[in-house]
Amino acid sequence: MDPEIKVLLDAVEQQLVTAEANLNRWNELKKILYKRLVKTNFPKPGNKIYAKYFQHQFFPATVDAYDSNKQTFNITWDDGDPQGRVVSVSDVALNRIPGVSEIGVGSNVLFEQGSYGANSDRTGGTRWHMGKITNMTKQPDGSYLYDGEHVFGKEHGKWVTYQGYQSHFKGLKLAQLRVSPNALDAFESGSDQSKTKVPDIDIFVCYADADVAPGASSINPMRIVGDIETKMKLKTNMKVRNPTLAQVSIMIQNAKVFLAFISNEFAADEKCQQQFQFAKKSAAIPVISTVVGNGFDWTRTVVGLLIAGELYIHFKDESVYNQKLQEVINAVSKSLKLAEKTNDPKKESTGCDGFISYCWLNSWSSKQANEVSLVKGNEFTDPRRIKKDLENKLVKSVGSKLWLDVEQLSAANQGDLNSSMFQQIAQGLSTTRVVLTFISSEYSKSENCNMEFNHAVKTMKIPTIPVIVGEPGSDDWAQMQVGMVLSQLEASNKNSERIDFRSVKNEKDYQAKLDAIVTRLTTTIKAKAKKPLPVTASNKAPKIGDHVIAHWKGGQFFFSTIVSFDKDSMCFTVDWDDGDTTGRVIKYNEVAKDVQVETADVGVGTKVLFPQGQYKLATNNASYSGFRYFEGEVTDIKEKDGKRLYSGHHIRYSKDQTPKYQGVSYEFSDYDLDSLRLAPTAFDVLCA
Questions:
Q1: Which of 394, 455, 505, 628 could form a cystine bridge with 400, CB 3.0-4.6 A?
Q2: How confident is the model at residue 14 (pLDDT cuts 50, 70, 90)?
Q3: How far apart are CA 500 and CA 469, in angstroms?
Q4: Whole-angstrom Cα distance, residue 645 to residue 642?
Q5: Are strands 434-439 and 354-357 parallel, antiparallel or unpaired?
Q6: Mean pLDDT of 419-445
Q7: What pairing do the DSSP bridges indicate for beta strands 177-178 and 108-116?
Q8: What distance in Å separates the CA atoms of residue 410 and residue 404, rounded to the nearest whole number?
């Protein structure tokens, strides 16, 4: 046999082994994620919740028990009230900060408004209310502000004369909202509580009744499903009449594919939203999104957020019916083949020898996939193209594969800050031999990229090949934290010297740069470098008993002590130093250990907590005074008398919206390192 062909055949065989192993790993990951999400989303005994009382008001309580037959919780009110202690699933919300994809225009949420005083029998507290989101405004940092209105008014028997009542709310952040659980999460396939008879189906079909009603303007989903059943001889849930919640939950979990017929009516249908969210976020089965009709208001709802950046099949009118039907059939066939392979695990994942760390804003491939709206760089600086071309060369030489997020993650979205995504990335890093970091101004400004870079380079100390991409002459990243770490790396290891692709203008130069990377990659891989050691506990993540600075409300941070940590929601519970009992559950990236940070951790663009102004708090028993901290961005670093001094500005307020507290101003100047604090990254918290 021709030696060159033999090498190629061996490489192909290795690729097939790796692909099959990855399918097995994804199947196991699906099961793990399902159990984690059920635990995260659905209240269980001992959990803190907000529950509906009388007159459509919600108050804090603790779950005592759950009745799966009646779909109700038995609770104990925090204020000791003995009344109204049985509430339905739809009338409670777990006290956790929801994910970005859980709230869109039209979503029902709980929000704070007004307070109530204590009496001889009960303590006081904050009132919560059911609201509907009417608008979302995206902020420069990628987060959203939410506007909305009360769902219930005086005509529904709601009390509207309490102090602080307003019919609308405006500019609330995600951390100020809560969402009710998905009732379908209460039933887990195979568990004792869900011994419910359901038919064996291949496809679970979900559509809005309005789209199959006589006179509907869209292509009828029933027609599409009928053609699929006839052509593919597959079983669906269409013959199950009036299924219970338990039956719906088990059928979705057992199905091989979830087929959604999306429209404005679909997004407005509570049943459709519930089933779609469950399939995407909890059951984690393949979802095929087909759009019927020509209205696209649904893109701003939770349904739209859940499939943002994904492809969908659009049955816009009769002229494209046969073409789109074939696309659906092809998609179903592909998903069924995937399910067959993942149900027959034979080999464990072999991992990847190289890991690609990059920013989507530097990838033309990402723009072509409608994942980003603009790109910095050119066709020769696209990390995804470089990865593909590198892999083709490596297959011929050492048979190696490179890890890329859109190929490896079960849900690849650089805007998604959930724990499962970071765990998958951490797993990818734990089995790699070398990391290729595609550094640019955009990379250095990306929170996710910064976390990835620091975890790989500083925490795990994986051999690193820096590749510079982006716009020519854009070197502001050199003063940022990534640039500072890279300078230290290059000074200590010449094999970590940067390879700059920004000067490439033709295919010949491009291939030369590729060959330079291949030489370094091959050397590292052939040397059989040791796999990274298991990650040691991070000293940056707070632990129970640690003194921290944590976010309270309105962008203000105060001193407190860690009481507990929920790894599923990635939230800390704290006790405030001043004795305040409100706002005690805080997201991981809004808590910072009260310890001095390292010089290499702070560069231009780094988010820091800085003290500015003091406050006094008077209680019934004593008074307390302390510092206010705020979140800021470092914009300048200078040396003075042998010491580094840091200047910057607030990032939660614009210049004209800065709070008017005494001693507070938009900018901060010449702070030394001792005065600054840093919140942990997701990797720090997960590895603690």
A1: 394
A2: low
A3: 7
A4: 10
A5: parallel
A6: 80
A7: antiparallel
A8: 12
Give backbone dihedrals phi and psi of 113, rounded to 5 degrees, phi first.
-165, 115
Q: Minimal CA–CA distance to 48: which of 69, 83, 81, 73?
A: 73
Task: Give residues with Cβ within 8 angstroms of 484, minimum separation 6.
Answer: 600, 603
More confident residue, 368 or 104: 104
Query: Look-up: residue for tokens 């938009």?
Result: 666
| Residue 3: Cβ-neighbour burial (10 angstroms; 0-12, 13-18, 19+) | exposed
CA distance 100 to 86: 30
Count the alpha carbons within 13 Å of 108 in the hemisphere toward its beta carbon.
17
User: Using N-to-C axis directions, what is the helix angle for 419-430 and 447-454, rounded to 10°?
Assistant: 30
> What would the mean pLDDT of 376-391 be, rounded to a whole number?
92
CB atoms within 10 A of CB 491: 9
Helix H, strand E, coil C: the string for 68-128 is CCCCEEEEEECCCCCCCCEEEHHHEEECCCCCHHHCCCCCEEEEEEEEECCCCCCCCEEEE
Nearest Cα residue to 170 out of 220, 201, 133: 133
What letter does residue 183 receive in the DSSP assignment?
Answer: G
Give the gyration radius of the chain's Cα atoms. 27
Locate 451 and state its tokens.
């976390």
Pair 97, 83: CB distance under 8 Å: no
Question: What pTM, to 2 d.p., does this model score?
Answer: 0.49
Give the closest residue to 524 by CA, choosing from 429, 400, 381.
Answer: 400
Cβ-contact 597, 676 below 8 angstroms: yes
